[in-house]
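User: structure tokens for this one?
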Amino acid sequence: MARAYHDPVMVREVVAYLGAESGGLYFDGTLGGGGHTEAILEASDDTRVIGVDQDPDALATAGARLERFGGRVRLVESNFADAAERLEESLAGALLDLGISSHQIDEETRGFSFRPGTPLDMRMAAGSAAVPTAADLLNELEERELADVFYRFGEERRSRRLAGEVVKRRRTQPFRTSDDLLGAIDTALGPRTTNQDRARIFQALRIAVNDEMGVLARALPALRDRLEPNGVFVVLSYHSLEDRQVKDAFREWSRDCVCPPELPVCRCRGRALGGLVTRKPVTAGASEVEANPRARSAKLRAWRKAA
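Assistant:
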């Protein structure tokens, strides 16, 4: 049952870039069903993993799958930014897989799909009262804020028209299920609306609900600082905004000088913090994409901390 929870993406590449066969302590910030962590632990008897997830269902599933490793794995219920900022140990490597798990998509009560009647929830931390649901955002954000969500995270050119339609509809009936949002999307975007368009809007809401860009922005420097010399940081991203954020961070850390060009004398750190392991994103091979279509959009980037 545990292996049906989610098929981890590019497992062999992740383990190889992390160098997990050398042992040490690794951080898996998005444990999911535990597939990547299992492979990291199998790479060496001297490897240990801190596995983090904010989804109690994922922790329960991964806990059962990883039980045979005993004290070599420590599970933490948290989002990966909070866990990274609290971390005191040094790491041989860190992994963030920014994709949503197959289980979360398939579980209709979680609200991550636009199947008919699906509740508009989308919280990664299932049931958390501290996190607003997608329905909360649709019913409570101002029109300009909604347009900003659709434009920034969904790259939707007709974001204002869609936000206006949402506000118009919620005056008579609050948004509760996927059908309510699909109706607004189809009306605002017109008869040529595709499932890809609908998926982008739903993804934009998910990113906003879980503050995914903000969490990533906090986690990147926190995990970089916890890496040992020569420690490797691997990120799998599935959205252009996430990949751009990771790419820009890894490149900036790899530069000797980050001063503005108009400064006559370098006043920054004056040395690179490390170097790129992957100059271009690594993607899944054809056989993996055929077996697991959700691997198609994955981009892997890796960075190594200076010795």
